[in-house]
């Protein structure tokens, strides 16, 4: 497969502590011609983004949000099962019991 171009994204180092992106990194990404053309269509005068860096950062942000949402949904589903269990299936446990089960599950 022939690769069309390399995108470099990331700007410069920021030193503000309150900034979420206090330090940025520059990364090189190789993509195919087809992906390059698709990205180019989303950048510039006719696109949604001003530059490729902005586009790539937004893609990564959305992927991160999706991953976090999936983890939350898995946790929520497990909690829903636990709360739906009949009350007689619950048993008293101390903190030591819970920690012991956790260690046993992990082989610690």
UniProtKB/TrEMBL annotation:
<dbReference type="InterPro" id="IPR038296">
    <property type="entry name" value="ParD_sf"/>
</dbReference>
<protein>
    <submittedName>
        <fullName>Addiction module antitoxin</fullName>
    </submittedName>
</protein>
């Amino acid at each position: 497969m022939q690769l069309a171009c390399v995108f470099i994204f990331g700007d410069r180092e920021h030193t503000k502590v309150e900034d979420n992106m206090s330090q940025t990194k520059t990364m090189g990404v190789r993509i195919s011609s087809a992906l390059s053309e698709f990205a180019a269509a989303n950048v510039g005068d006719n696109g949604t983004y001003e530059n490729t860096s902005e586009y790539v950062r937004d893609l990564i942000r959305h992927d991160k949000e999706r991953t976090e949402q999936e983890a939350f949904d898995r946790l929520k589903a497990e909690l829903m099962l636990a709360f739906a269990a009949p009350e007689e299936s619950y048993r008293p446990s101390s903190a030591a019991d819970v920690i012991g089960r956790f260690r046993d599950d992990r082989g610690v």
